[in-house]
Write a structure and sequence with these properties.
By secondary structure, this protein is of the alpha+beta class. The chain has three helices and seven strands, in the order ααβββββαββ.
């Protein structure tokens, strides 16, 4: 058994070394904790957990906004299919005693080819206006040649463009088409 008189100073030195080592480890741990806090702290000084909770709240808000926008978009798509998307216009002169192609046939169709053909017949003494319903591209009443042509122009029109054809006074030969 070693002598207590020689063992005590050795143990005191070992205890001192351990205390110095513990102090160095404690200091290093404090430095690392400070660096970790600096890396994980948000702009407003929150902890990493606070930053993550804030971002998670924002994600949930954005998700509900996206769902709301999806509903609005679906409704707009349905409503948009019912709006007039294809338009055909034919200007003509039905009577020899008037000039200027003041009469017209106007076809207005939605995406399902439902709509109306509106005709105006202009003479020196009066103007008459007629409307004929169109369902699934088929007229519910007999159409004149000009109304049939306007309906054909509307069916061919794409991208919200108006298909126009005029005769004589408009300076366009019969059967020509123009876009505006």
């Amino acid at each position: 058994m070693p002598d207590p008189a020689t063992l005590t100073p050795v143990l005191i030195v070992a205890l001192g070394v351990c205390l110095v080592g513990l102090a160095l480890v404690w200091r290093r741990l404090g430095t690392l904790q400070g660096r970790l806090d600096g890396v994980t702290r948000g702009e407003d000084g929150q902890s990493l957990q606070g930053v993550l909770e804030t971002h998670l709240g924002r994600v949930v808000e954005m998700q509900s906004e996206v769902v709301g926008l999806g509903r609005r978009t679906d409704r707009l798509e349905v409503d948009g299919r019912r709006a007039f998307q294809r338009i055909g216009l034919v200007r003509f002169n039905p009577f020899e005693d008037t000039g200027g192609n003041q009469s017209f046939a106007l076809a207005l169709l939605d995406a399902e080819e439902d709509g109306v053909v509106i005709s105006s017949l202009h003479s020196r003494g009066s103007t008459r206006i007629y409307a004929k319903a169109i369902a699934a591209g088929r007229p519910e009443a007999a159409l004149s040649d000009e109304e049939t042509e306007a309906l054909g122009l509307a069916r061919d029109a794409t991208g919200g463009r108006v298909a126009i054809r005029g005769r004589a006074a408009a300076g366009l030969p019969a059967g020509s088409r123009g876009g505006r």
